[in-house]
Amino acid sequence: MPSVLESVTVVEGGRWRRGARRLAVAAARRALRRAGLTPADVDLLVNAGLYHERLLGEPALAALVQDDLGANPDDPHPGGHGTFSFDVADGSCGMLTGLRVADGFLRTGAVDHALVVASDADPGRGLAPGFPFAPVGAAVVCGRGEGTGGIAGFRASTGSPPGPTLTATVAFDGRRNRLTVTRPAGADAAAGALAGDVAGALLADRGLTPDDLDLVVANPLTAEFLGALADRLGVPPARVGRPRDGRPVHTAGLAVALEAAAPAAGLAGRTALLVSGGAGPAAVAALVLP
Fold first, then answer.
1. Longest C-alpha distance within the chain, in Å?
2. Taking the model in full, what pTM does it have?
3. Which CATH architecture has domain 3-148?
4. DSSP summary character for residue 102
5. Are 3-148 and 152-289 the same fold in CATH?
6. Domain coordinates in residue numbering, the chain
7. With respect to CATH, is domain 152-289 assigned 3.40.47.10?
8. Given a cut of 70, is residue 203 above it in pLDDT?
């Protein structure tokens, strides 16, 4: 049975809620409510966010989100139910990579419901002066479909030879660690061109062309990325979405684009292409069939 997207939710950080952990938890709670589920129904929780409080690497943020949600915090007992949680780190491609992982578990029947979350926010304590990304959290609930519609396949690639790319480094500066995020000129365009190639190859795998698509959902939402993606894929720029005003969204960007493109009916009954490009450059694409 193919995997289906049951709900998508985006939460933007306000004055009192800017931490990445809180954003991820708030988005997860809303996504579960929209899907008619409770935290206890979550079999698999994948976190694709990168930048969070104090830049802590351990424990995995997914485990902290699981605990905050109350998603089966105890060890599963015989005949009981548990939640398996872990992080994936793939930058702006992270949500699609998380969906790819969830799809594998769902197709095997190992899980019934998976939750993919992503969020980024200034880690605070002066660790990231000039932090470039907007504080946004997102969550996607996935389940196993009963028909033939749903996620039909994925394709991913990294650029060869490497091109200009976003970099993030943590280095000792002035007696403390500091995070520096750099996006050189041409980085988004290189990622967009690769994303167009990957998306085109995925469509060809299924005997489809861009004309067969009802919807294209892309991340990141920058003019350079979207323009290069549209050009390489051979579609009008308007079909891949509009650039987002203000600071860019990083790992949660795919959900932001999806919520904007399909706010009501979602992907039901549509042939949709989900595509992301990021550091490396790298790109991931997924095809959703009605």
1. 58
2. 0.93
3. 3-Layer(aba) Sandwich (3.40)
4. H
5. yes
6. 3-148, 152-289
7. yes
8. yes
Burial 185-208 (b: 16+ CB within 10 A, else e): eebbbbbbbbbbbbbbebbeeeeb
Q: Which helix (H) or strand (E) holds 145?
A: none
Structure tokens at 223: 């003019």
212's CB contacts (< 8 A; 6+ apart) are: 203, 271
What b-and-e string marks burial along 3-26, b requiring 16 or more CB atoms within 10 Å of the CB?
Answer: bbbbbbbbbbbeeeebbbbbbbbb
Paired sense of beta strands 272-278 and 215-219, if any: parallel
Alpha-carbon gap, residue 51 to 62, rounded angstroms: 13
Q: Which residues contact 188 (CB under 8 A, 6 or more apart)?
A: 220, 222, 224, 225, 228, 277
DSSP conformation letters of 216-262: EEEES--HHHHHHHHHHHTS-GGGG--PPSSSPP-TTHHHHHHHHHS
Q: What letter represents residue 30's amino acid? A: R
Q: What is the pLDDT of residues 211-255, one digit of tens each?
A: 999 999 999 999 999 999 999 999 999 999 899 988 999 999 999
Q: How far, in Å, CA of 239 to CA of 109, rounded?
A: 35
What are the beta bridge partners of residue 264?
none
DSSP secondary structure code for residue 82 in this structure: -
